[in-house]
C-alpha cells in the first residue's frame, strides 16, 4: 500500500471525526440526558429520532412507527431528517433523543472521547450496491457472476459517484479494491451530495459508477440507464455481510435515565424486524405506498427483497459480537481509527 493512499485514508477519517468534534460544543446547552415521562393524556412517551433519509434499510423502524407497534409500547416517535454524523450532534445537543446513524460514527466519536451507547441495530450488512452506466456495462463484457476482482479492475481509475467522501459508500469502495487484491487508489471519488445527485451523474454519464442504497439501484436499472454491477446489499461480497452498519445511538445520560424506554423501544423494533422477514408482502406494500409511491413498484419491491436476501436489514435489535468485530475489521482496513475499548459502547456486548 502506498504512503499517499494511507494519507488519503486518514484524511477521510479526520473529516468524519471533525464533524463529531464539533458536536462537543453543544454539550453545555443540550438536554440529551433528560428523562422522558409519559404524556398525561395519552400515557405515551414521545421521542425524536434523527434519521438520515427514507430508505428501505429502515423498513422495520418505519413500519413500527406507521403501524402502531411503537404506540402499543406507549412510545410516540417523530423522525427528524439529519444527515451523517449530524444525527449524533443533534442528539448530544438535545434536539433529538436518538439517532439512526452509520455504525462508524459512534466508534469514531469514542476515539475522540465522546460515548454514544449503541442500543440497537438497523442494518446488519452494507445497504449500498454498485451501479455502472448501461453503456459501460455493455463495454465491460462482464457478467453478473464475474469475480469481484474482474469487476474492480474494470472500475479502477474510472469516476465513481458517492454522496459523501466520508460516507460508508466511500470506505466500502476502498475496501472492495483491497478485497480484490488491488490498490485502493484506483477509487476515483466524485462527491455528489446525495443518491439523486449520483443517479443524475450516472444518467448523464458524468460518472461511470456509483454506489447507493436500495431501492435506488433497482429503480435506475428499471429505467434503463444503469446496471447493478456489484450487488453488495444482496450478499455478493461475503466480507461485507453480517456487519453492523446502521445503528440507533443515544447519549450515556439518556441511556442511564431511560432504561425502561430503551427496553420498550428495542422490543417494539424487534417485533417490526421480525415482520420484515415473516410478513414481507404486507411490510413491503406499506413501505412502497407510504414512502416510494411514484417510483416503479416492482423495482422498489425488488430493492427491499434484495436487502432481505442479503440479510442487510437487521433481524433483531441485539448486536452480536461477530457482526461488531467485522465492523472493526472493516474500519481498520480502511484507515479509520478504532479505540481498544470499542465494545463499551455496544450495550449488548458491554454487559
From TrEMBL:
**Pfam families recorded:** NMT1_2 (PF13379)
The answer, when asked if Signal is one of the entry's keywords, is yes
Subcellular location field: Periplasm
**Main location, first listed in the record:** periplasm
Q: Does the keyword Glycoprotein apply?
A: no
Which interval of the chain is the signal sequence?
1-25
> Which SUPFAM superfamilies does the annotation name?
Periplasmic binding protein-like II
Sorted UniProt keywords: Signal
Q: Which residues cross the membrane?
A: none
Taxonomically, the superkingdom here is Bacteria
The record's similarity note reads:
Belongs to the bacterial solute-binding protein SsuA/TauA family.
Q: What is this protein called?
A: ABC transporter substrate-binding protein
Amino acid at each position: 500500500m502506498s504512503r499517499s493512499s494511507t494519507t488519503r485514508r486518514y484524511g477521510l477519517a479526520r473529516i468524519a471525526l471533525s464533524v463529531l468534534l464539533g458536536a462537543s460544543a453543544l454539550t453545555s446547552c443540550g438536554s440529551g440526558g433528560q428523562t422522558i415521562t409519559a404524556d398525561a393524556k395519552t400515557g405515551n412517551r414521545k421521542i425524536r429520532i434523527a434519521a438520515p433519509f427514507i430508505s428501505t434499510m429502515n423498513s422495520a423502524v418505519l413500519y413500527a412507527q406507521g403501524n402502531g407497534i411503537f404506540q402499543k409500547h406507549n412510545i410516540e416517535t417523530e423522525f427528524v431528517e439529519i444527515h451523517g454524523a449530524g444525527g449524533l450532534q443533534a442528539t448530544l445537543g438535545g434536539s433529538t433523543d436518538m439517532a439512526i446513524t452509520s455504525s462508524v460514527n459512534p466508534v469514531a466519536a469514542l476515539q475522540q472521547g465522546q460515548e454514544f451507547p449503541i442500543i440497537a441495530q438497523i442494518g446488519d450488512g452494507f445497504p449500498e450496491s454498485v451501479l455502472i452506466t448501461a453503456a459501460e456495462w455493455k463495454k465491460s463484457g462482464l457478467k453478473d457472476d464475474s469475480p469481484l476482482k474482474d469487476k474492480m479492475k474494470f472500475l479502477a481509475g474510472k469516476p465513481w459517484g458517492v454522496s459523501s467522501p466520508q460516507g460508508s459508500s466511500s470506505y466500502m469502495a476502498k475496501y472492495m479494491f483491497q478485497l480484490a487484491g488491488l490498490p485502493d487508489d484506483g477509487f476515483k471519488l466524485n462527491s455528489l451530495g446525495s443518491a439523486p445527485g449520483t443517479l443524475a451523474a450516472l444518467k448523464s454519464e458524468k460518472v461511470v459508477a456509483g454506489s447507493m442504497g436500495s431501492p435506488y439501484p433497482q429503480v435506475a436499472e428499471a429505467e434503463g440507464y444503469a446496471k447493478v454491477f456489484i450487488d453488495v446489499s444482496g450478499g455478493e461480497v461475503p466480507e461485507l455481510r453480517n456487519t453492523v452498519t446502521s445503528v440507533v445511538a443515544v447519549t450515556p445520560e439518556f441511556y442511564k435515565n431511560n432504561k425502561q424506554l430503551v427496553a420498550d423501544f428495542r422490543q417494539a423494533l424487534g417485533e417490526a424486524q421480525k415482520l420484515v422477514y415473516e410478513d414481507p408482502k404486507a411490510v413491503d406494500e406499506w413501505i412502497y405506498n407510504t414512502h416510494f409511491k411514484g417510483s416503479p413498484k416492482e423495482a422498489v419491491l425488488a430493492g427491499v427483497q434484495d436487502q432481505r436476501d442479503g440479510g442487510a436489514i437487521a433481524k433483531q435489535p441485539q448486536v452480536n459480537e461477530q457482526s461488531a468485530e467485522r465492523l472493526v475489521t472493516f474500519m481498520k482496513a480502511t484507515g479509520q481509527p478504532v479505540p481498544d475499548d470499542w465494545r463499551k459502547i455496544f450495550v449488548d456486548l458491554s454487559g
